[in-house]
Design a protein that fits this description.
This protein has 389 residues and is an alpha+beta fold. It has 13 helices and 13 strands. The strands form four sheets. It has a five-stranded mixed beta sheet, covered by helices on one side.
């Protein structure tokens, strides 16, 4: 057996329910209307089309989709030369060579997380023991944040990502604390540079390639964009494997298929179901509709990844050969996720090490082993309890 059916996991908001149209008009929770692009081919075309602007989506009066929007000074909110300049300064940190050098480090971190799961035994929470601490440790190490400060970082970032509970005032306070911390750390890196990304960015600032605000915002963007999304992707991927235990068994029997499993789980269980809003800067024809200047467009990555016109048996996870076309999960075009290689590396190593260490792993025999997080921005779990014995 080389295929398992992975159905949509968890609850889906109404606007994300599937339908036959590739492009459909929806109304967001903010009350603003949008064009939702559900087809794979049209979705890729939107993501590569410079007539759809990210920067315009952050202008006063622009339609908003939800509260999960990046700051106006974030690289994810820029277009054109400024976006290209900032992207160039950090792209080397995610190069193929750098990822190859990080593989042993990520493997060691993963094995330590698996030790923690083994120590707990039955009832271990894969989110708290693996999916959260692994990406945070990887990112803080890459940035050059001292290991002893990692718990403080988790506290800050968890509050900033909490869309349901934390008050805006508390979020603003924690963001200020985080910026103050990074400012102090940058000053330290300037005096004592090391082989890490913040040191590289500090050197770039000293050479006039970055403003102080750009440096701080880049550090924040890399940390926040890479933490919650990777946590969500690891959690959803493991839930998919444990929900259909045959997929886990297949990966255990054929570890050589871990590369295909990684791509298929990224396609079938994306932590980011939707893109950020893009605004049409002129009328653009999309399939059977015309998007007028000033209208908002959102690509439903979750649906594009299951487009039957692109993926044969789109709900099937093909471990032996994959499905060929790349998933939309990490985007496309100039705003394609910079950290995709790092997210892939972490998920692949988890899929390599976890089945080997815990061949009998299964969802815990308790009333609620799985608890979903709320929010449209990033899908994920707040709890995934498992039994390993």
């Amino acid at each position: 057996m080389t295929e398992s059916t992975i159905n949509q996991l968890g609850p889906l908001p109404g606007i994300l329910r599937p339908g036959p149209e590739d492009v459909v008009r929806v109304v967001a929770g903010t009350g603003h209307p949008f064009w939702l692009v559900r087809g794979y081919t049209l979705g890729r075309s939107v993501l590569a089309d410079k007539r759809f602007s990210r920067a315009a989506a952050l202008q006063p009066g622009a339609p908003t989709f939800n509260d999960a929007q990046p700051a106006a000074d974030s690289m994810m909110s820029m277009d054109g030369n400024r976006h290209a300049r900032l992207r160039r300064l950090v792209s080397g940190a995610f190069s193929t060579g750098r990822m190859a050098r990080m593989s042993a480090f990520v493997t060691d971190l993963t094995d330590r997380r698996l030790d923690a799961i083994a120590e707990i035994g039955n009832g271990a929470d894969l989110i708290e023991t693996l999916a959260r601490p692994l990406p945070l440790s990887v990112l803080t190490t890459m940035l050059g944040i001292p290991e002893e400060d990692t718990p403080r970082f988790r506290g800050w970032v968890d509050v900033l990502f909490d869309l349901e509970v934390t008050s805006p005032r508390e979020k603003a306070r924690r963001r200020i604390e985080l910026i103050e911390y990074i400012t102090e750390l940058v000053d330290h890196k300037r005096r004592d540079p090391r082989d890490d990304l913040l040191s590289d960015l500090t050197i770039a600032q000293d050479q006039g390639e970055l403003s102080t605000n750009e440096l701080l915002t880049l550090g924040l963007t890399l940390l926040m964009a890479g933490y919650e999304t990777t946590t969500g992707q690891i959690g959803l991927s493991l839930l998919a494997l444990l929900t259909d235990r045959s997929a886990y068994e297949e990966l255990l029997a054929h570890p050589e298929h871990v590369g295909n499993a990684t791509e298929e789980l990224i396609r079938l269980t994306p932590a980011t179901p939707l893109t950020f809003v893009r605004i049409a800067t002129e009328p653009v024809r999309l399939g059977d509709v015309t998007v007028q200047k000033g209208e908002g467009v959102v690509v439903a990555l979750l649906h594009g990844n299951r487009d039957a016109e692109v993926f044969a048996e789109p709900a099937s996870m093909n471990l032996e050969s994959g499905h060929g076309s790349p998933p939309l999960t990490f985007g496309h075009g100039v705003h394609r996720c910079l950290g995709a290689p790092l997210a892939r590396l972490q998920l692949r190593i988890v899929l390599e090490r976890l089945p080997r260490r815990f061949p009998a792993l299964r969802l815990a025999d308790v009333p609620e082993p799985v608890v979903w997080k709320d929010g449209l921005g990033i899908r994920g779990l707040s709890r995934l309890l498992v039994d390993s014995e």
